[in-house]
Amino acid sequence: MGSTSRVPHAPPATELLCLWAALGCGEGDHHGDGACGGDDDSSGEAGGDLEWDTYAAGMSRTGEGGVFEFVLVAADPGPPDKGENTWTLELREAGGGAVVEGATVEVVPYMPLHGHGTQPASYPCAPAAEAGSCVAGPFDLFMAGTWEVAVNATGPDGATDQATFTFCLEG
Ligand SMILES: [Cu+2]
Q1: Residue 155 CA, ligand 1 centroid: distance in Å
Q2: Which range of residues forms the domain containing residue 62?
Q3: Fewer CB within 10 Å, N- or C-terminus of the chain?
């Protein structure tokens, strides 16, 4: 018979997801159909509604607790990409307030689709020259696909807040 059907080599699930992740990034769509969108592959606790941010230097986000405004002053590389990343962050009072000095800030990268972070798991943000700003990294985002980078802040008065920046790395 002339059957040419082949049994393709089946890569481990993790590799397969990462392949999809890389492909998904190319869509340039906030609701990507690939792993970056996550709709088909993350029905569990990772959440099936992943969207990623469009990077712009100076982009900001109000923390989940409404305490602080988190500014991603600059990402190097920008937009974030697979490999070593260094971020300059700035902390402000929520609502367009003054910069917050003396806060403790850390960065925690996480790949929701795969359920893993980085090693080490968190990176302290070292105070920079500009008041209220700090530099985190380099941290190794070692896979293409969607990374949620949580920024945790504890103000000088003990108030805590968190914001998450989500990027899809082309790889
Ligand atoms: Cu991963």
Answers
A1: 31
A2: 51-169
A3: N
The answer to the question of residue 10 being in a domain is no
Q: For 109-128, what is the mean pLDDT?
A: 97
Residue 91: name the closest of 109, 78, 79, 104 by CA: 104
Output the domain CATH number for residue 149.
Answer: 2.60.40.2480
What total of structural domains would you count in the chain?
1
pLDDT at residue 3, as a whole number? 47
Contact 169, 80 (CB under 8 A): yes
Burial (0-12, 13-18, 19+ Cβ within 10 Å), 141:
buried
Residues around ion ligand 1, judged by CB within 5 A, are 111, 114, 143
Residue 66 Cα to ligand 1 midpoint, Å, equals 30
* Per-residue pLDDT tens over the stretch 128-151: 999 999 999 999 999 999 999 999
> pLDDT tens-digit profile of 8-48?
444 444 444 444 444 444 444 444 444 554 444 433 334 45
